[in-house]
TrEMBL record:
Sequence ranges assigned to domain ChsH2 C-terminal OB-fold in this UniProt record: 17-77
Protein name: Zn-ribbon domain-containing OB-fold protein
Lineage: Bacteria, Bacillati, Chloroflexota, Candidatus Thermofontia, Phototrophicales
SUPFAM superfamilies associated with the record: Nucleic acid-binding proteins (SSF50249)
PANTHER family (alphabetical): BLR3430 PROTEIN (PTHR34075)
InterPro entries in alphabetical order: ChsH2_C, NA-bd_OB-fold, Thioester_dehydratase-like
Domain of life per record: Bacteria
Transmembrane segments: none
Amino acid sequence: MVAPLNSTIEQGESFDFSGYGEVYTYTVVQDPPAGFESQAPYMLALVRLDEGPIVTAQITDTDGEIAIGDRVEMVTRKLATEGREGMIVYGYKFRKVLGS
């Protein structure tokens, strides 16, 4: 659960985010942590959601052109395959808003 500073949220209260925001800042990861070597290089950004909070996320589906202030949208992508059974783990990433 994400809450602005100096605010109170009752336990169990939920909030739906639109999934849209803008790139606050970003970097290109050249030397990734263990387990992410096959994805390097990749873009990692701080995304300011339209509702205010800032989240850390990988930027995906891009040809390398991204800039601070670009509009982005959340998408669900495969993050990893784990274990002998090959369980697939999905999570959120962001991409530039289509048509922008």
